[in-house]
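Q: Convert this sequence to structure tokens.
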Amino acid sequence: MIASVHIPRRRGRAALLAAASLLLAACTGPETDAGTPAADPGTGHLHGLGVDPADGTVYAAGHLGVFRLSDGEAVRAADRYQDTMGFTVTGPSTFLASGHPSPTDPDARSPHLGLIRSTDAGRTWKTLSAEGEADFHALQQAGASLYGFDSQSGRLWASADHGRTWNKRAKQPLLDLAAYRKTPETVWAATGKGLERSTDGGRTFDAVPGAPALIAVDATGPGMLVALAADGRVLSSQGGRNWTEHGRLPGGGVPTVLTAVTTQRLLAADSTDTIYHSSDAGRTWKILHQSTQAAEDH
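A:
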């Protein structure tokens, strides 16, 4: 059964109260000497990026919510502060995610959100499955198949009914997943040290020889991969055999996120919570959004 959920974050009882107090203070107080509220804490570290096909808007999912990017600003969806992980856009105004509840939500039922879905571009969310059990750090839709990496079990989960029920498959540490809609049984896993490939829907994985140390990977066609290396290089490959370097992510942060909207249009983020956009396969980049601290450091 699909249940409505208010989205919040994990702790033991004492830690939850302490975190709630801190976040509430950051979001709604304390006031400055001039009597104005303190500044919004921003996105927090970023977990995912995507484009809503309904209107072409870029969305970012972070430690402190889901954000709509507009004119260089990141606007929090519906004033929600959930720790949003495994974020992926699956259709017009339709998002899947996981993570942890916000410490300020009094209706939080569990420290792990399981699989949640929004059909109104992040304004509201419903629980689909695995609440209290799974913490999906990566989610990948591939045709009728949905894959999720659960950080709690260290396993890849697979669903054939849009995430309502799951089969638990290989135990495979990973940072990111990729699969293409026309070849859903082929699953790629970026591990931070290399690349793993499954040809049986995630039941087994084998290392891809000679693959760079990848922290993110996306599939834009059958065997067509776009990836982000730990050193910031943006790469592409057909089947993982040979790799072509197209450019490098700018800035001084550690690369963390890559989404290939198309083979040419890429979104990326780094540890400074800066969001980048490329329209030429990663050869050049422009900043879509930069945190206040990152801007000050520059």
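The longest helix spans residues 13-28.
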